[in-house]
Amino acid sequence: MELVKNVSLQLDKNDKFKDIGISIRFMAPLRKELASLRSLLAIMICDRCEKYPTKKQMSDIQDNLYGTQISAQTVGYGKAQVLEIRTRVIDPRYVKDKELLQSVFAYIHEALFHPLLNEAAFEEAKAVLKAKLMRLRDDAAQYVVAQGLRLAGEGSSLAISSLGDLEELEKLTLDDVLRAHKHLLHEERIDMIVCGPIDEAQITALIQQHLSFQARNVDLESHYIFHSEQASRYEKEQRVVNQCNIFMMWQTNIGICDADYYALRVANAMFGQYPTSLLFREVREKRSLCYNILASLISFDGAMVVTTGVEAENIDQAIDVIHTQFQRIGSGEFDEELMTVSKTMIINSLRASKDSMPSVIAQLYQNQVLNQSISIDERIKRIQAVTIDDVKRVFKNCRHCMSFVVCQEDNQDETD
Protein backbone atom coordinates (compact mmCIF):
# COMPACT_ATOMS: atom_id res chain seq x y z
CA MET A 1 0.00 0.00 0.00
CA GLU A 2 1.11 3.58 -0.61
CA LEU A 3 1.11 5.47 2.68
CA VAL A 4 1.85 8.80 1.02
CA LYS A 5 3.23 9.60 -2.43
CA ASN A 6 6.40 7.53 -3.08
CA VAL A 7 6.35 5.96 0.40
CA SER A 8 5.03 2.39 0.44
CA LEU A 9 4.43 -0.36 3.00
CA GLN A 10 4.12 -4.08 2.26
CA LEU A 11 3.01 -6.49 4.97
CA ASP A 12 3.59 -10.22 4.50
CA LYS A 13 1.90 -12.24 7.23
CA ASN A 14 3.91 -15.45 7.17
CA ASP A 15 3.65 -17.87 10.07
CA LYS A 16 6.43 -20.18 8.85
CA PHE A 17 9.00 -17.79 10.33
CA LYS A 18 9.71 -17.51 14.07
CA ASP A 19 10.80 -13.89 13.92
CA ILE A 20 9.80 -10.67 12.20
CA GLY A 21 11.88 -9.04 9.49
CA ILE A 22 11.79 -5.30 8.88
CA SER A 23 13.33 -3.75 5.76
CA ILE A 24 13.33 -0.03 4.94
CA ARG A 25 14.76 0.81 1.52
CA PHE A 26 15.63 4.26 0.24
CA MET A 27 16.17 4.59 -3.52
CA ALA A 28 18.20 7.32 -5.20
CA PRO A 29 20.03 7.64 -8.54
CA LEU A 30 23.26 5.63 -8.72
CA ARG A 31 25.90 8.28 -9.31
CA LYS A 32 29.64 8.11 -8.73
CA GLU A 33 29.65 11.27 -6.60
CA LEU A 34 26.80 9.96 -4.39
CA ALA A 35 27.60 6.24 -4.01
CA SER A 36 30.37 6.66 -1.41
CA LEU A 37 28.34 9.27 0.45
CA ARG A 38 25.28 7.06 0.86
CA SER A 39 27.43 4.06 1.81
CA LEU A 40 29.07 6.20 4.48
CA LEU A 41 25.66 7.32 5.74
CA ALA A 42 24.51 3.69 5.93
CA ILE A 43 27.43 2.87 8.24
CA MET A 44 26.69 5.84 10.49
CA ILE A 45 22.95 5.13 10.77
CA CYS A 46 23.44 1.69 12.25
CA ASP A 47 26.46 2.60 14.38
CA ARG A 48 25.18 5.00 17.08
CA CYS A 49 22.44 7.57 17.57
CA GLU A 50 21.91 10.72 19.61
CA LYS A 51 19.88 8.90 22.26
CA TYR A 52 22.50 6.10 22.55
CA PRO A 53 25.75 7.90 21.68
CA THR A 54 28.22 5.22 22.82
CA LYS A 55 28.78 1.71 21.50
CA LYS A 56 28.15 0.39 25.02
CA GLN A 57 24.73 2.05 25.12
CA MET A 58 23.90 0.69 21.67
CA SER A 59 24.93 -2.78 22.78
CA ASP A 60 22.83 -2.48 25.94
CA ILE A 61 19.65 -1.44 24.09
CA GLN A 62 20.15 -4.28 21.61
CA ASP A 63 20.46 -6.75 24.50
CA ASN A 64 17.28 -5.35 26.05
CA LEU A 65 15.52 -5.96 22.71
CA TYR A 66 16.53 -9.67 22.73
CA GLY A 67 19.50 -9.19 20.42
CA THR A 68 17.73 -7.01 17.86
CA GLN A 69 20.37 -5.27 15.75
CA ILE A 70 20.10 -2.77 12.93
CA SER A 71 22.29 -3.27 9.88
CA ALA A 72 22.59 -1.37 6.62
CA GLN A 73 23.91 -1.84 3.12
CA THR A 74 23.89 -0.16 -0.28
CA VAL A 75 22.98 -2.16 -3.39
CA GLY A 76 22.77 -1.26 -7.07
CA TYR A 77 19.47 -1.74 -8.90
CA GLY A 78 20.31 -0.72 -12.45
CA LYS A 79 20.35 3.08 -12.57
CA ALA A 80 19.45 3.31 -8.88
CA GLN A 81 21.29 2.80 -5.60
CA VAL A 82 19.26 1.41 -2.71
CA LEU A 83 20.25 2.08 0.89
CA GLU A 84 18.59 -0.60 3.02
CA ILE A 85 18.10 -0.49 6.79
CA ARG A 86 17.03 -3.87 8.13
CA THR A 87 16.52 -5.76 11.33
CA ARG A 88 14.95 -8.96 12.67
CA VAL A 89 13.15 -9.26 15.97
CA ILE A 90 11.95 -12.35 17.80
CA ASP A 91 8.20 -13.03 17.69
CA PRO A 92 6.83 -11.26 20.80
CA ARG A 93 4.72 -14.34 21.57
CA TYR A 94 7.89 -16.09 22.75
CA VAL A 95 9.00 -13.44 25.26
CA LYS A 96 7.56 -11.82 28.38
CA ASP A 97 7.90 -8.26 27.06
CA LYS A 98 4.59 -7.61 25.33
CA GLU A 99 5.77 -4.11 24.33
CA LEU A 100 8.75 -5.50 22.42
CA LEU A 101 7.61 -4.36 18.98
CA GLN A 102 6.80 -0.90 20.29
CA SER A 103 10.35 -0.68 21.70
CA VAL A 104 11.93 -2.02 18.49
CA PHE A 105 10.18 0.50 16.27
CA ALA A 106 11.10 3.29 18.70
CA TYR A 107 14.74 2.12 18.45
CA ILE A 108 14.58 2.12 14.63
CA HIS A 109 13.16 5.64 14.75
CA GLU A 110 16.07 6.89 16.85
CA ALA A 111 18.66 5.24 14.61
CA LEU A 112 17.10 6.45 11.38
CA PHE A 113 15.92 9.93 12.27
CA HIS A 114 18.59 10.85 14.83
CA PRO A 115 21.86 9.04 14.03
CA LEU A 116 25.02 10.32 15.67
CA LEU A 117 26.42 12.55 12.94
CA ASN A 118 29.41 14.33 14.46
CA GLU A 119 33.00 14.72 13.32
CA ALA A 120 34.38 11.82 15.38
CA ALA A 121 31.69 9.39 14.17
CA PHE A 122 32.22 10.63 10.61
CA GLU A 123 35.98 9.97 10.67
CA GLU A 124 35.43 6.52 12.18
CA ALA A 125 32.83 5.56 9.55
CA LYS A 126 35.07 6.93 6.82
CA ALA A 127 37.91 4.68 8.02
CA VAL A 128 35.58 1.67 8.03
CA LEU A 129 34.38 2.32 4.48
CA LYS A 130 37.92 3.00 3.26
CA ALA A 131 39.05 -0.34 4.68
CA LYS A 132 36.18 -2.12 2.89
CA LEU A 133 37.02 -0.49 -0.42
CA MET A 134 40.71 -1.31 -0.04
CA ARG A 135 39.93 -4.96 0.73
CA LEU A 136 37.85 -5.16 -2.44
CA ARG A 137 40.64 -3.54 -4.45
CA ASP A 138 43.20 -5.98 -3.05
CA ASP A 139 41.06 -9.08 -3.67
CA ALA A 140 41.91 -10.15 -7.22
CA ALA A 141 38.63 -11.97 -7.89
CA GLN A 142 36.53 -9.00 -6.79
CA TYR A 143 38.82 -6.47 -8.44
CA VAL A 144 38.53 -8.07 -11.88
CA VAL A 145 34.73 -7.82 -11.70
CA ALA A 146 34.70 -4.22 -10.48
CA GLN A 147 37.28 -3.06 -12.99
CA GLY A 148 35.74 -5.14 -15.79
CA LEU A 149 32.36 -3.49 -15.18
CA ARG A 150 34.00 -0.05 -15.12
CA LEU A 151 35.64 -0.69 -18.47
CA ALA A 152 32.82 -2.53 -20.23
CA GLY A 153 30.09 -0.33 -18.79
CA GLU A 154 31.81 3.02 -19.31
CA GLY A 155 29.25 5.80 -19.39
CA SER A 156 26.53 3.66 -17.80
CA SER A 157 25.43 2.65 -14.32
CA LEU A 158 27.34 -0.61 -14.68
CA ALA A 159 30.58 1.33 -14.28
CA ILE A 160 29.62 2.65 -10.84
CA SER A 161 30.14 0.62 -7.67
CA SER A 162 27.20 0.88 -5.28
CA LEU A 163 29.66 0.65 -2.38
CA GLY A 164 31.56 3.71 -3.53
CA ASP A 165 34.95 4.85 -4.69
CA LEU A 166 38.12 5.64 -2.72
CA GLU A 167 38.79 8.86 -4.61
CA GLU A 168 35.25 10.13 -4.03
CA LEU A 169 35.34 9.05 -0.39
CA GLU A 170 38.35 11.25 0.34
CA LYS A 171 36.46 14.33 -0.85
CA LEU A 172 33.56 13.90 1.58
CA THR A 173 32.89 16.07 4.62
CA LEU A 174 30.51 15.86 7.56
CA ASP A 175 28.36 18.55 5.94
CA ASP A 176 27.92 16.26 2.93
CA VAL A 177 26.64 13.50 5.21
CA LEU A 178 24.24 15.86 6.99
CA ARG A 179 22.78 16.95 3.64
CA ALA A 180 22.55 13.33 2.46
CA HIS A 181 20.68 12.34 5.62
CA LYS A 182 18.17 15.14 5.12
CA HIS A 183 17.74 14.13 1.47
CA LEU A 184 17.24 10.49 2.48
CA LEU A 185 14.38 11.29 4.85
CA HIS A 186 12.61 13.91 2.76
CA GLU A 187 13.28 13.36 -0.94
CA GLU A 188 14.03 9.71 -1.73
CA ARG A 189 11.63 6.94 -2.63
CA ILE A 190 10.93 4.74 0.41
CA ASP A 191 9.67 1.15 0.43
CA MET A 192 9.06 -0.58 3.77
CA ILE A 193 8.49 -4.32 4.08
CA VAL A 194 7.58 -6.24 7.23
CA CYS A 195 7.48 -10.04 7.04
CA GLY A 196 6.71 -12.78 9.56
CA PRO A 197 4.05 -13.77 12.09
CA ILE A 198 2.62 -10.27 12.32
CA ASP A 199 -0.61 -8.56 13.30
CA GLU A 200 -1.06 -6.34 10.26
CA ALA A 201 -3.12 -3.69 12.05
CA GLN A 202 -0.55 -3.49 14.85
CA ILE A 203 2.39 -3.13 12.44
CA THR A 204 0.58 -0.46 10.42
CA ALA A 205 -0.07 1.52 13.59
CA LEU A 206 3.57 1.22 14.70
CA ILE A 207 4.79 2.36 11.27
CA GLN A 208 2.50 5.37 11.38
CA GLN A 209 3.68 6.21 14.88
CA HIS A 210 7.43 5.76 14.49
CA LEU A 211 8.21 5.82 10.75
CA SER A 212 6.05 8.59 9.39
CA PHE A 213 7.34 10.27 6.23
CA GLN A 214 6.12 13.15 4.13
CA ALA A 215 5.00 12.72 0.52
CA ARG A 216 7.71 13.40 -2.02
CA ASN A 217 8.10 13.80 -5.78
CA VAL A 218 10.52 11.24 -7.19
CA ASP A 219 11.41 10.85 -10.87
CA LEU A 220 13.71 7.84 -10.88
CA GLU A 221 14.56 4.97 -13.23
CA SER A 222 16.02 1.68 -12.08
CA HIS A 223 16.00 -1.15 -14.62
CA TYR A 224 17.23 -0.54 -18.17
CA ILE A 225 18.99 -2.43 -20.96
CA PHE A 226 22.69 -1.71 -21.28
CA HIS A 227 23.83 -1.01 -24.82
CA SER A 228 27.32 -0.26 -26.08
CA GLU A 229 28.29 0.86 -29.57
CA GLN A 230 31.89 -0.24 -29.04
CA ALA A 231 33.21 -3.33 -30.76
CA SER A 232 34.00 -6.42 -28.69
CA ARG A 233 37.37 -5.89 -27.05
CA TYR A 234 40.06 -7.54 -24.95
CA GLU A 235 42.11 -5.84 -22.25
CA LYS A 236 44.73 -7.09 -19.83
CA GLU A 237 46.10 -5.60 -16.62
CA GLN A 238 49.13 -6.75 -14.66
CA ARG A 239 49.05 -6.83 -10.86
CA VAL A 240 50.68 -8.74 -8.03
CA VAL A 241 48.28 -11.70 -7.87
CA ASN A 242 48.52 -15.41 -7.15
CA GLN A 243 46.26 -16.40 -10.02
CA CYS A 244 45.02 -14.81 -13.23
CA ASN A 245 41.38 -13.79 -13.23
CA ILE A 246 39.07 -13.51 -16.24
CA PHE A 247 35.98 -11.34 -16.61
CA MET A 248 33.78 -11.53 -19.71
CA MET A 249 30.61 -9.55 -20.35
CA TRP A 250 27.75 -9.69 -22.85
CA GLN A 251 24.90 -7.25 -23.37
CA THR A 252 21.77 -9.40 -23.41
CA ASN A 253 19.43 -6.89 -25.08
CA ILE A 254 16.73 -8.25 -22.76
CA GLY A 255 15.25 -6.34 -19.86
CA ILE A 256 14.09 -7.83 -16.57
CA CYS A 257 10.45 -7.11 -17.49
CA ASP A 258 10.68 -8.53 -21.03
CA ALA A 259 8.83 -11.68 -22.04
CA ASP A 260 12.15 -13.35 -22.92
CA TYR A 261 13.68 -12.77 -19.47
CA TYR A 262 12.79 -16.25 -18.19
CA ALA A 263 14.27 -17.87 -21.30
CA LEU A 264 17.44 -15.88 -20.59
CA ARG A 265 17.48 -17.22 -17.02
CA VAL A 266 17.29 -20.79 -18.33
CA ALA A 267 19.96 -20.14 -20.97
CA ASN A 268 22.29 -18.61 -18.37
CA ALA A 269 21.77 -21.63 -16.09
CA MET A 270 22.65 -23.98 -18.93
CA PHE A 271 25.65 -21.86 -19.84
CA GLY A 272 27.36 -21.47 -16.48
CA GLN A 273 25.24 -20.93 -13.38
CA TYR A 274 25.33 -24.44 -11.91
CA PRO A 275 27.73 -27.41 -11.69
CA THR A 276 25.56 -29.06 -14.37
CA SER A 277 26.33 -26.25 -16.86
CA LEU A 278 28.44 -26.36 -20.00
CA LEU A 279 31.10 -24.07 -18.56
CA PHE A 280 31.53 -26.19 -15.46
CA ARG A 281 31.72 -29.38 -17.52
CA GLU A 282 33.98 -28.13 -20.29
CA VAL A 283 36.25 -25.62 -18.57
CA ARG A 284 36.58 -27.21 -15.14
CA GLU A 285 35.79 -30.91 -15.40
CA LYS A 286 36.99 -31.84 -18.88
CA ARG A 287 40.01 -29.53 -19.22
CA SER A 288 40.87 -28.70 -15.57
CA LEU A 289 41.49 -25.07 -16.48
CA CYS A 290 39.95 -23.66 -13.30
CA TYR A 291 38.48 -24.53 -9.93
CA ASN A 292 35.41 -22.32 -10.09
CA ILE A 293 33.58 -20.68 -12.98
CA LEU A 294 30.29 -18.82 -12.94
CA ALA A 295 27.93 -17.14 -15.38
CA SER A 296 25.49 -14.68 -13.87
CA LEU A 297 22.92 -12.12 -14.96
CA ILE A 298 22.96 -8.47 -13.95
CA SER A 299 19.24 -8.36 -14.54
CA PHE A 300 18.48 -4.70 -13.82
CA ASP A 301 21.15 -3.66 -16.37
CA GLY A 302 20.52 -6.22 -19.09
CA ALA A 303 23.98 -7.77 -18.89
CA MET A 304 25.56 -11.20 -18.36
CA VAL A 305 29.05 -11.91 -17.02
CA VAL A 306 31.38 -14.88 -16.67
CA THR A 307 34.15 -14.95 -14.08
CA THR A 308 36.87 -17.48 -13.37
CA GLY A 309 40.47 -17.83 -12.20
CA VAL A 310 43.12 -19.66 -14.26
CA GLU A 311 46.86 -20.06 -14.59
CA ALA A 312 48.59 -17.60 -16.93
CA GLU A 313 49.37 -20.20 -19.58
CA ASN A 314 45.67 -21.17 -19.79
CA ILE A 315 44.13 -17.71 -20.31
CA ASP A 316 43.67 -17.90 -24.09
CA GLN A 317 42.40 -21.47 -24.01
CA ALA A 318 39.89 -20.71 -21.26
CA ILE A 319 38.50 -17.69 -23.11
CA ASP A 320 38.21 -19.71 -26.32
CA VAL A 321 36.36 -22.53 -24.56
CA ILE A 322 33.99 -20.06 -22.89
CA HIS A 323 33.15 -18.50 -26.25
CA THR A 324 32.59 -21.96 -27.73
CA GLN A 325 30.12 -22.93 -25.00
CA PHE A 326 28.26 -19.66 -25.51
CA GLN A 327 27.96 -20.40 -29.22
CA ARG A 328 26.75 -23.94 -28.48
CA ILE A 329 23.77 -22.58 -26.56
CA GLY A 330 22.89 -20.17 -29.37
CA SER A 331 23.12 -22.85 -32.05
CA GLY A 332 21.32 -25.54 -30.06
CA GLU A 333 24.34 -27.85 -29.76
CA PHE A 334 23.26 -29.34 -26.43
CA ASP A 335 21.10 -32.21 -25.28
CA GLU A 336 17.61 -31.62 -23.96
CA GLU A 337 18.58 -33.10 -20.61
CA LEU A 338 20.83 -30.07 -19.97
CA MET A 339 17.83 -27.78 -20.28
CA THR A 340 15.64 -30.06 -18.15
CA VAL A 341 18.22 -30.27 -15.37
CA SER A 342 18.88 -26.51 -15.50
CA LYS A 343 15.17 -25.75 -15.20
CA THR A 344 14.95 -28.09 -12.23
CA MET A 345 17.86 -26.32 -10.52
CA ILE A 346 16.22 -22.91 -11.00
CA ILE A 347 12.84 -24.18 -9.81
CA ASN A 348 14.34 -25.83 -6.73
CA SER A 349 16.08 -22.55 -5.91
CA LEU A 350 12.81 -20.62 -6.31
CA ARG A 351 10.95 -23.07 -4.07
CA ALA A 352 13.69 -22.89 -1.43
CA SER A 353 13.43 -19.10 -1.45
CA LYS A 354 9.97 -19.40 0.11
CA ASP A 355 11.70 -20.62 3.29
CA SER A 356 14.22 -17.77 3.43
CA MET A 357 13.04 -14.47 4.88
CA PRO A 358 15.69 -12.38 3.05
CA SER A 359 14.62 -14.02 -0.22
CA VAL A 360 10.93 -13.41 0.47
CA ILE A 361 11.61 -9.74 1.22
CA ALA A 362 13.82 -9.43 -1.88
CA GLN A 363 11.03 -10.83 -4.08
CA LEU A 364 8.46 -8.49 -2.55
CA TYR A 365 10.76 -5.53 -3.13
CA GLN A 366 11.53 -6.51 -6.72
CA ASN A 367 7.82 -6.72 -7.49
CA GLN A 368 7.32 -3.29 -5.94
CA VAL A 369 10.15 -1.69 -7.90
CA LEU A 370 9.06 -3.29 -11.17
CA ASN A 371 5.38 -2.56 -10.52
CA GLN A 372 4.59 -6.28 -10.80
CA SER A 373 2.83 -8.88 -8.69
CA ILE A 374 4.51 -12.09 -9.86
CA SER A 375 4.45 -14.91 -7.31
CA ILE A 376 7.09 -17.61 -6.96
CA ASP A 377 4.64 -20.12 -8.41
CA GLU A 378 4.10 -17.91 -11.45
CA ARG A 379 7.87 -17.58 -11.93
CA ILE A 380 8.14 -21.37 -11.83
CA LYS A 381 5.45 -21.69 -14.52
CA ARG A 382 7.33 -19.25 -16.74
CA ILE A 383 10.56 -21.20 -16.30
CA GLN A 384 8.76 -24.46 -17.15
CA ALA A 385 7.32 -22.91 -20.32
CA VAL A 386 10.73 -22.07 -21.82
CA THR A 387 11.54 -24.06 -24.99
CA ILE A 388 14.79 -24.96 -26.75
CA ASP A 389 14.00 -22.42 -29.46
CA ASP A 390 13.54 -19.76 -26.77
CA VAL A 391 16.96 -20.55 -25.32
CA LYS A 392 18.64 -20.43 -28.72
CA ARG A 393 16.94 -17.15 -29.62
CA VAL A 394 17.94 -15.23 -26.50
CA PHE A 395 21.62 -16.22 -26.75
CA LYS A 396 21.72 -15.34 -30.43
CA ASN A 397 20.47 -11.92 -29.36
CA CYS A 398 23.37 -11.39 -26.92
CA ARG A 399 26.54 -9.54 -27.94
CA HIS A 400 29.98 -9.93 -26.39
CA CYS A 401 31.30 -6.60 -25.09
CA MET A 402 34.56 -7.31 -23.32
CA SER A 403 37.06 -9.82 -22.04
CA PHE A 404 39.19 -8.39 -19.24
CA VAL A 405 42.09 -10.27 -17.65
CA VAL A 406 44.09 -9.49 -14.52
CA CYS A 407 47.32 -11.47 -14.49
CA GLN A 408 50.69 -11.67 -12.76
CA GLU A 409 53.32 -9.07 -13.47
CA ASP A 410 55.99 -10.31 -15.86
CA ASN A 411 58.72 -10.12 -13.21
CA GLN A 412 56.59 -11.50 -10.36
CA ASP A 413 58.36 -14.27 -8.47
CA GLU A 414 56.24 -17.42 -8.73
CA THR A 415 57.13 -18.24 -5.12
CA ASP A 416 55.71 -14.95 -3.78
Task: Describe the protein's architecture and organization.
This protein has 416 residues and is of the alpha+beta class. The protein has helices spanning 32-45, 55-64, 100-113, 119-138, 140-152, 166-171, 174-187, 200-210, 261-273, 278-286, 315-331, 336-353, 357-370, 376-384, 388-396, and strands at residues 2-4, 7-13, 19-29, 71-77, 80-90, 189-196, 233-239, 244-251, 293-298, 303-310, 399-408. A six-stranded mixed β-sheet has the order 1-2-6-3-5-4, sandwiched between helices.
Itemize the secondary structure elements and their pairings.
Layout: E1 2-4, E2 7-13, E3 19-29, H1 32-45, H2 55-64, E4 71-77, E5 80-90, H3 100-113, H4 119-138, H5 140-152, H6 166-171, H7 174-187, E6 189-196, H8 200-210, E7 233-239, E8 244-251, H9 261-273, H10 278-286, E9 293-298, E10 303-310, H11 315-331, H12 336-353, H13 357-370, H14 376-384, H15 388-396, E11 399-408
Structure in a nutshell:
The protein has 15 helices and 11 strands.
Shape: globular
**Main structural class:** alpha+beta
Note the gap between the termini: 58 Å
Helix content: 40-55%
Main features:
416 residues; alpha+beta; six-stranded mixed sheet; five-stranded mixed sheet; 15 helices; 11 strands; globular
